[in-house]
Write a structure and sequence with these properties.
Elements (H helix, E strand, L loop, with lengths): L1 E9 L2 E9 L3 H14 L8 E5 L2 E5 L9 H10 L5 E8 L6 H22 L1
Antiparallel strand pairs: 1-2, 2-5, 3-4, 3-5
Helix pairs in contact: 2-3
C-alpha cells in the first residue's frame, strides 16, 4: 500500500520518492512491475526494502552503491520495517557524479520517510 510520494529536482533531474507498506516480497515485485510500466521513460528506478529480516536493494543501472545503498541506509537509520522505498529518476542531462547521486537518492528517501514517520 502506497503511503506517500515526494518529488525533488536536482540539476534538471527529477527524483520521485515513493514509500510503501509491504509485508511480502511478492508485493514488492508487483509494485516494481507496475512502476516500470507507469514510468517507461524513467532512466532508473532503484529501490530498497526491509521486510522483517529480508533486506534487498537495487541500483537499477546507476553506478554501484550510489542509489539502492543510500536508500537502504535511510531505512536502517530510521529503523523502518515492512517498507519499500523507490526513487524514480528522470535524467535531466547533467551528470551528478557518484557523490551527487548518493546525496540525491538519500535526500529523496529521507524526505519520503519523514512523511512516513509523521503518520
Amino acid at each position: 500500500m502506497k503511503i506517500n510520494q515526494i518529488e525533488i529536482a536536482i540539476k534538471k533531474s527529477k527524483f520521485i520518492g515513493i514509500i510503501y507498506n509491504v509485508t511480502t516480497e511478492e508485493e514488492v515485485k508487483d509494485i516494481l512491475v507496475s512502476l516500470k510500466k507507469e514510468h517507461k521513460k524513467a532512466k532508473h528506478i532503484p529501490y530498497a526494502y526491509k521486510i522483517d529480516m529480508k533486506i534487498k536493494k537495487s541500483d537499477d543501472k546507476e553506478p554501484a552503491n550510489t542509489a539502492g545503498g543510500p536508500i537502504l541506509n535511510i531505512i536502517e537509520k530510521k529503523n523502518l520495517n515492512n517498507v519499500l522505498i523507490v526513487v524514480i529518476r528522470y535524467f535531466g542531462g547533467i551528470k551528478l557524479g557518484a557523490g551527487g547521486l548518493i546525496r540525491a537518492y538519500a535526500a529523496a528517501a529521507n524526505e519520503v520517510s519523514n512523511i512516513k514517520n509523521k503518520e
